Every structure is written in structure tokens, then in C-alpha cells.
Amino acid sequence: MKRFQVFNFQLQPPRIRLLALVLAALFSFLLQSCYSFTGSSLSPETKTIQIRDFPNNSALMNPNLAQQFSTDIQNRFLQRTTLKGSTEVPDILIEGEITDYIISPTTISSTVNAPGGNIQAAQNKLTITVKVHYENRVEPDKSFDRTYSDEAVFSSDLDINAIEATQVKLVNERIINKIFNDIVANW
């Protein structure tokens, strides 16, 4: 049997395996106490969630925004966590409203050939703002009320249907990522 010499100690292979196993178990225990291997900071006792519809209370109306946002946020939580949907006394309640849906010019260009040099927008910006109420009945100290906002800049050549098909989806996804990370990842 071959012997290994480490710092003037002679360790035989069975002892090396035992030492490696003990170190791995200790490392795993220490790591698990400060980090969740699931990537979630939710308590293991948290089992159910209710996400109410987010009405669109902004001045500019996008007829599909409320339904699209509500469906997307519900899907995010139900698909990426082990939480089950519930309507009666859920462990987590998420509700809120869409408070702003704004399309505004960001870059101005002028047409050289036009008489008087007409000014037109070269790029527009879509901004969506969502107010969120998060209630955690298992860990009440983690509950919060926050406002989330994000934007996307796009060419002024896009028509309203293209904006709603692409830019709204992009901004919704970014806002939902922020909400999800604040609740599940607790970053």
C-alpha cells in the first residue's frame, strides 16, 4: 500500500478519503447556512402565492397591458418557484397597479429638405411604471410597497402595434425581473 506524506504526517488512503469527506461535509454545511442552493431566499415554510391582476390606471391606455403584465408576472412566479397558486389565505400576496405608460420623444432630428426644417422625433422612449404591494405572511418583515419603472428606446418609425408587440414585452420583462429578484432572490 502506498503512503502519502503530508507535513510530516503519514496518511494512508482511507484516512485521506475520510478527511476529504469531513471537509466536504463541513464546507457544505457552512455554505448552506449562508446561501440557498435553490437560489431562493424564501422560507421553506412558504408554500402558496396569490398574484392579483394589475389594473392599468395610467393616463395613456394600452388595452392589452394589464392582462399581459398580470399573466407574465403570474407565470414567472409559478414556473420558476415551487410556490403553488392559492386564492385563500396565501403565504405570499402580490398585488398592485400600472401607474404610468408613457411614450415620449428622446432624440430629435430635423429634415434638411423640408421648408423651415421640420423637426421630428428620431427615437422615442416607452416608460412603464408599476406600483407593487408584497405581503409575506410567513416572514412579515420582508413585506414591502415599492414602485418599479423601466424603459425602452426605439426608432420613431415603429408603429403602435410594433411597439406593443416588442417594446412593451421587453419593458414588462425587465420590471418583472426586478420584482422577482426583490421577492425571491432578496438581492
Describe this structure in words.
The protein is built from three helices and seven strands; from the N terminus they run ββαβαββββα. By secondary structure, it is α/β, with parallel strands linked by helices. A hairpin with a 7-residue loop joins strand 6 and strand 7 (144-155). The chain is elongated. Mean pLDDT is 82; it is low at 33-38.
Strand content: 25-35%
Mean pLDDT: 82
Query: Which class do the helix and strand fractions yield?
Result: alpha/beta
What's the β-strand tally?
7
- Gyration radius from CA atoms, angstroms: 26 Å
Residue windows where pLDDT falls under 50 for at least 5 positions:
33-38
Cα-to-Cα separation, first versus last residue: 51 Å
* Helix content, binned percent: 25-40%
Helical run tally: 3
What's the SSE pattern? Answer: EEHEHEEEEH
Oligomer: single chain
